[in-house]
Input
Amino acid sequence: MRTTGAAARVGTVLIGGAVLGTLSVAILTIGVLGVGTAPAVAAGAETVPLPVPRPKKLAQTAQPARPPLVAPALTGTPPTGAVVPVAAPARPGVLDNSQKALADKVSGYLSGMQTLVGSFIQVGPDGGRTEGQFYIQKPGKVRFEYSPPSPIDVIADGSSVVVRDRKLATQDLYPLSQTPLRYLLVEKIDLTRDTNLVSVSADDVFVTVVIEEKQALTGTHRMMMMFGAKDFQLKQWTVTDPQGYDTTVAVYNLDPTKRPDPGLFRIEYERVLQ
Output
């Protein structure tokens, strides 16, 4: 199997750059993804946070609100004014009853979601945007298809994640267990029991949960997931790598009833892409 640094860098941006050793450094060198253009903005679209374009120190306290990115086809208009979090824990990982109730609702949504099809916008650490379609089939399967001119597909088959570059006929393979994607793809999840849940907050638009993971080789990563405050549907996630770089994936046009073609998640381990 041939591999290429280009495909690895694009893929690790999407899956969090948290795979192995120096792969987390590759996320820092990609700049914009170099592919695709910013999609048209729909009038009255919902805003989603924009990643900071430079490293920042990982902190245990809540981060300031980020400038908004407007994603198409996300309905609703967020209220003006400051975000009012649900009572912040006295120390990270200690949740009060209201936060535990929110975490239970998010866990229920994630556990009940068995399939999901929709569109995504990915925002890299420097603000560069790409877009495409995604398909989820639990447990463990997902496919991200980047829109042209990007040649990249990211596919998980339940045990591995492969980043394919159709143009260069290359692919890079990583363990699914070493990427933040597993939190979205596990069949059942209890956030308070199965993850290191360090923060739960809410306002009139979003419920936000933050999971922190420390690994000896790659350092501390954070994954922030945002859900609709009324329907608890997934809206976006942001992965922060040990250097403080954020990559955000916002999802929209969601269909939880459509069953993806099983062939979408097939990884051909022995064949070099033609």
